[in-house]
Structures are given as C-alpha cells and as structure tokens.
Amino acid sequence: MDAKTVKLSLRHICQSYVVGNAVRDAVVDIGLDVFDNEFLVILGPGQCGKSVLLNIIGGLERPIDGEVLLDGDRIEGSDPRIAMVFQKLALMPWKTVLDNVAFGPQIAGTDKAVWRAEAQKYIDLVGLQGFEKSYPFELSGGMKQRVGIARAYTGNPEILLMDEPFGQLDAQTRYAMEDEIQRIWQQERRTVLFVTNNIEEAVYLGDRIVLLSSGPAHIKEIYEIDLPRPRNMTDPDFLVVRKKIADNMDLAI
Asked: How high is the pLDDT of residue 197?
C-alpha cells in the first residue's frame, strides 16, 4: 500500500430503523479510517448491516448519529467523489454499452467528444472494447459487471464503493472478476471499499479486512493482510489467514 494518508473517516456511525412498533439497531458505533488508494474489504455474515454502512458512506442513507469525513471535511448526502457499484446493476436495457458507461457525463451536459473519449477509456480498461454498440441483453453476467465498473469510473470518483458486486455470478466468472478488479485497481490506484460475506474473496482482495459482527453490526476485528499479490487461495499462508478470520466470524442469523 502507498503511504498511509487517511482518505475517508467514519466517526461513531449508528443507524436504526422502526420495524413494527420497535426500534431496531442496524449499525452501532462504527469508527474507521480508510487510507488513500487502499483496497479495504468489509466482511460480515449476511444481513448484518454491511450494505447499510456502505449506503451511509455513499450518501444513500443518513445515519442517526455520527459523521463521514472525506479528506477531513464532513460530507452529507451523495458526493460526486464517491461512486457505487451494486450487485444488481441498473443498466438501461435500451442503451448500448457506450451510452450506459457515459450516462453520467451525458446528463451532466459534458461535451460529446469529451464523454465519448472518457467512456471509451474505461470501456477499454475493463476489457470491453468491441462491445460499445452491444446492448445489456447481449452480454454475460461478468460483462454486465464490467459495464457497471466502467460506468462508475467514468464519473472520475476518488472512492469506489462495491456492494457484493460478484455475488450473483457463477464461481468461474467470480474468480475471473476478482482478478479483473484487482488489475483495474492496481492500474487506477483509487480507494476501494468492497463488501462481501465470502472469506476467501476478502483475503484474496483486501489490503485490510474489517470484520463486522452479526447484526447490529459493530467492528469485531481489523486484519492487515500482508500477503504478496497475486495471491493463491491454496497457499498455506493464505489458509492460515482464512482460518483465523473464519474462527472469529459470526454465523448469519
């Protein structure tokens, strides 16, 4: 990792919801610093509050307590410096790959030559050159995810949030996309927060892993993953780290 400059800070983040006649906590007192250019993985069992935390960072939800700081300044609501990639991509089926990727700059009124060049840059980066005129129904699941990643990067974000982006892919495609997102991250060197409930995926990708408890989510442990890249899931050192985390991870409830 590069020099540890704090890029994003979470301070005492709490979130609760009214369910029926009761108030239920989803996230409890999350405090965390995320470093510039870091690949940080947020790991936890299903339905523990991982996505809630990511939604707060992305400005889709407002916490009942706490604050989010970007480069030391408090942010509220969405911020153009932060982009999200979801598990369920909202690609527009009537638009081509090029127009899906360029949608943000298009609606912002960016000059056509500029948005075309920017979109093409990231289409090439994710390996979809030649598919610019294709429509989503003509693409595989992995290719659709590449479109979503390219679309997020076309907005030139400083931070990329990824909410279980490979969860609906078959195993072979998922492994390929894990390699692909590492390649893109190493080339672009932006800060990534990646949510997953898969321990192997977390150890394979992360510079650090933030392990959350079962809901309501709080931080159980933060692991520094000091393994060289590219990583091998069958390597003894990898398996040692995997077991250490698995032994501390709550079961989904």
From this structure: 93
